[in-house]
Model the fold of this input.
Amino acid sequence: MAAVVPSLELVDRVCAGEINAIARLLTRAEAGSAECRPALDEIYRRAGRAHVVGITGVPGSGKSTLVARLAREIRASGRKVAIVAIDPSSPFTGGSILGDRIRMNDLAGDPGIFVRSMATRGALGGLARGTLEAVDILDAAGFDMVIVETVGVGQDEVDIVRASHTTVVMSAPGLGDDIQAIKAGVLEIADIHVVSKCDRPDANKTLIDLKAMLIMGLALARVPGWKVPVLATSSARGEGVAELFDAIVRHRAALEAEGGIDMRRRMIAERRLLKAAEGIIADRFEQHRGGRIADLLGNVMGRQTSPYAAAVELLNEIGMED
Amino acid sequence: MNHDKQMIRVLIAKVGLDGHDRGVKIVARCLRDAGMDVIYTGLHRSPEEVVTAAVQEDVDVLGVSLLSGAHMTIFPALLKLLRERKAEDIIVLGGGVMPDEDVVKLKEMGVKEVLLQDTPPEQIVTTVRRLVAERGPR
Ligand SMILES: Nc1nc2c(ncn2[C@@H]2O[C@H](COP(=O)(O)OP(=O)(O)O)[C@@H](O)[C@H]2O)c(=O)[nH]1
Ligand SMILES: [Mg+2]
Done:
């Protein structure tokens, strides 16, 4: 049996781009083990160079297939790319079947591409627990672009815009009459819109509908100097992929030029701080379940104390200690 | 949020030419229902693709199913690639159809267990759990 390597010892190896070390630290980050916390703190300090791109859209819209295509395009530009592909986990058992790699197998021969699958695990928001740490790890490991593919269902997907520099929202023909992005509430978060599967004849209608929606003013100009483009792609034919890559690079350039990048970074920092705090509170809550929390719960149940007042008391008691 | 809960990660792969994946999909579902993360990579994978995926995904177990009769070349190739990538701590599990004497040989080479076709799903789950427990933390 091999000895367990402490996470802190993995940090230098991760930063040197060593695949096994990256993979192992990702596993520990996902498990959220206390042992790896100091390592992740150090990783965070060393990260910050990568361009983080979020891609969201309903299941079946063609995200994974397009990401595989896009990865090749990114590589052709000389950049290294990492992909975090997120699939839902079963609400009943917590287990999951992660199938995004099915579309990405032909990337295997290239050491400049790293693909990792994660499950949502019912984490708050649409992102899997540990996703943001995973991005840090891949960033620190020297990948120039990190793509996060998320299942685009529900409002929660707004989280990906808050964690990425560039957000791509995908719509596809043949998945119902409506523009799925509207239903999912993610239309407004796009820096770039993509209509996939444009080899299909019904894709044109999706394109027209989407553009009409955007003209109606649903697309808020969130980055000065950036007009949200609507791109048509076909992974089947390899069309529109170069244009998508170009748009992603131009979006980052626009962020840099107009000072938007600092706004983004601030937004990401705020969001992560809040999420981390929520996570700590949830953990402490579990730790103290038997003790003080039981008393407070009794008071709330008996209507002597309101949940709000009890929460303030709770934070006073468990919030500060270690 | 339940912390410190390391999921068992399993990569299930079909290597070679045989063309259907009903069996492996059933296995994948059983393992998921047992609370594991199952990475499925699809049909007709090469050993190179499978090992790359297994290393990047840091799986505990690599389960490879073969019906095509190529097991005596595929498994040695997989084991060799895993050694080259310094990933010998990945548990290799075989599945499919093969003669008993080949099972013995594969185990000598380093395949931890071979579960022939029609192994009951519960037995697959218990085997995976046992092998991961025997390996211990890493
Ligand atoms: N016609 C067509 N089908 C596509 C295209 N891209 C993906 N698909 C198909 O759409 C389905 C879902 O693709 P996938 O990439 O897994 O979607 P995801 O769930 O959004 O990641 C698969 O059956 C793909 O073969 C495309 O460009 N054209
Ligand atoms: Mg996908």
